[in-house]
């Protein structure tokens, strides 16, 4: 007997999540220092000072369980975004929330819709509960929302939309999202995953919390791992209709968010200067990446996130491996069905310089 034979039917089709290679691992393998990691869309500015101070203040309080209701953090989110605390669900990273949405609303054999090339956690949570994945072929690497509408049937329970999408960086406008929501039956839950929203320009950003008021079946999911720099602490939040939030909070593990994450999140959400600096660097450096690609005839997918996905028109794995030897970690995305692409997270200017130099070296070598 093998234990996979007795696993939940959906689990049998799962493969392990492929994370970006940790810096320490490459250091051990190659015995080199000064490695640049541009692989997991993390924040190149490191841990914000505001969060360090908040965490230090909590270090002697770790004996107690965290506040299961996250009162203080919910109050800060509510005030900052003009929503009610009853609309908020906190997650151990937004991945935790994505899983929670599936657990709360879908059962075995129900259908969950998402796009080809969309965030890999959607198929993961769908298969884990043995629901049926309806993966809609992408249009120009992005979501084909008309295709989504055509796929809706009696079994549809949940729809995932990543905006901007990872790993392609595609972005849907407010108008496209709203036209879509207006046509989705009111009992089907739509998740708008906005892990990268802080990197979009304020004038193009979607007023998603207003949409959540208008469409009670809409859940907005946000992360503090990217623009806010707290990836290692694991914290995210969802905003929805209070009735949905109540259901999510019943299924949620009561202490899913730890003391340090809760207090650091409170601090960084008030730290407007930090996020502004992060977004500004991203805008400037994204332009450098686009210019670099144009100069060297590299095709890329225009991105609204903190990463850019480059098409090498041939298997990208050898390029990834050569970059590793130069001390630069990027992200192969063959697991997404994109074997010719590499995803590169936008770093600090000097980190990006190192990537440009390393890539040019190896492309020139042929
Ligand atoms: C990174 C990412 C997330 C969430 O990350 P957490 O660290 O779990 O908050 C969610 N959605 C997308 C599309 C992402 O790229």
TrEMBL record:
It holds the Pfam family Aminotran_1_2. Its EC number is 2.6.1.9. Residues 34-354 form the Aminotransferase class I/classII large domain. Pathway: Amino-acid biosynthesis; L-histidine biosynthesis; L-histidine from 5-phospho-alpha-D-ribose 1-diphosphate: step 7/9. Gene3D superfamilies: Aspartate Aminotransferase, domain 1 (3.90.1150.10), Type I PLP-dependent aspartate aminotransferase-like (Major domain) (3.40.640.10). It catalyses: L-histidinol phosphate + 2-oxoglutarate = 3-(imidazol-4-yl)-2-oxopropyl phosphate + L-glutamate. The modification N6-(pyridoxal phosphate)lysine is found at residue 226. The keyword rRNA-binding does not apply. GO terms for biological process: L-histidine biosynthetic process. Its cofactor is pyridoxal 5'-phosphate. It is an enzyme of class 2 (transferase). Keywords: Amino-acid biosynthesis, Aminotransferase, Histidine biosynthesis, Pyridoxal phosphate, Transferase. One of its GO terms (molecular function) is pyridoxal phosphate binding. HAMAP family: HisC_aminotrans_2 (MF_01023). Belongs to the class-II pyridoxal-phosphate-dependent aminotransferase family. Histidinol-phosphate aminotransferase subfamily. Homodimer. NCBIfam families: hisC. This is Histidinol-phosphate aminotransferase. The gene is hisC2.
